[in-house]
Input
Amino acid sequence: MIHGDRHVRNISHDDAAQVRTLVGKVTAEYSEVTNPLFVEHASALAGKLPTAVLHACRPPDPTLGLVVLRGLPVDEGELGPTPASWSAADHWCAAEQDILLFLLATVMGRVFGWAGQQDGRLVHDIVPARGSEREQTGASSSVLLTPHTEDAFHPRRANYLMLGCLRNPDRVGTTAASVRQTELNNADIAILSRADLPILPDSSYGEDHSGAGVPPPVATVWRKNDGLGLRYDPAYTPLARASPEYGAAYRRLGAELERVSHTIVLNPGEFLVLDNDAVVHGRVPFTARYDGTDRWIKRVNIRAARPERPDAEAREHGYGQEVVDPYA
Ligand SMILES: [Fe+2]
Output
């Protein structure tokens, strides 16, 4: 747990009521986030959010690297059943919540999706799916989802990730750990700054990446203006190929991330924003219900205006995975 409430920004009842009214009007006019007119107007519409809500959408504290927006208007009783899989969540499923996430995310940066993930949707549904219980993807449940950078394999991965909780009856914890709270020595930072190993795409993108070319080795950490950057996904990194020196430094990093890891239990109406360049996230194991009342999280990828990443990333192929940029 994080001590105190410094990671929380509370939305007042009055502001939440105003947000609800705005989202209701926007949904009535545009129906859903896939409406190109909605995307075109999203920035102006987001500007109509209450001032305090706009202020709450400023970047997280750089050391903590995360913030929970608490008190957003999500009424669990008004939601339909939790879909049985992301693909069962059609565009009309929780359209208001999709619009709410998109508007808040628009205050923070540019929303984008991936052609090969969840049919290129801009707002993803994270729900447990039968048959995926033991995968290392958001559809899993019975295994620990090991800490990872979202879409670590790709040079155009998100700078911020927003996870909006619609339903979490069993109080399943999300884990988060910031590289900026670890105590790595300079020798380990120097080793992990080398591009020695690749990170392969996770199985939510399918299994065949043979046509993408040679997997490029990538740096695990790098120095940014506001602290260390991190790109980390051990479940998809061929660690058996690491030199003894690199492997040892990587293990020390993993142990440090575990030491500084927090567990955050999201309740409906609480939206977690993660700095994907400094914080890894995961999820504790749980038993899926498969009865329409399961944990239901909405996810959006956000690109910041000026991400600071190693120059070499610009030459990576990203395994052929195309960004869906609704503004292009
Ligand atoms: Fe993730």
User: Anything to note?
Assistant: The two ends are 40 Å apart (CA to CA). The pocket of fe (ii) ion is lined by residues 138, 148, 150, 281 (CB under 6 Å). The domain at 8-324 is CATH 3.60.130.10 (Double-stranded beta-helix).
